[in-house]
């Protein structure tokens, strides 16, 4: 979803002067009667470029997506924080639907992923039979991941020119299930490892309910940052010339 949303912003940039358009951007005119389908195809074509980053548009590699920390569980009996997080699999997506509404200044899309993998340093404390705590690397692989995204934009004036600005984004994630593996410093077969991995397995629904809004927040922040970085390079007229 992150990759798809950034790709849409780049595709929209493809509507500026032809001589300036990189070869990897497929042009979609705003009067194209099949604009939404055109953008979806363009997004698919951009997948590899986004995976590796596009320096000329200030877009860093998005595989993996990195952020400092995220809460996996925060209950009296099970507290777990993932730090130095890396997300993999964001480039393996399918856009199932997309609607671009230039009049109301919004973009709506639905995206599904093959799977998403999270690698992080895990700091966990739990009360199973007796209190236990530990740190170590964790891997979580989520499947059945889908996202519903609404991206809104505004037109702002700067030095006599009009630019696009994205003030907000709404992301609703769905995660059906996951598998996880935690290896504490005490070792893979230690009582701590067995206890925490059992808690991760048995508390999957609770953990999904905790991590989902946290992921929505950190991903939204990164999408807005990169979308606005891209769009600051071009005026609105360059982005959306009045043609098919």
TrEMBL record:
This is Protein takeout. GO terms for biological process: circadian rhythm. Pfam families: JHBP (PF06585). GO terms for cellular component: extracellular space. The gene is LOC107272349. The keyword Signal applies. InterPro entries: Haemolymph_juvenile_hormone-bd, To_sf. Belongs to the TO family. SMART domains: JHBP. Keywords: Biological rhythms, Signal. Residues 1-19 form the signal peptide.
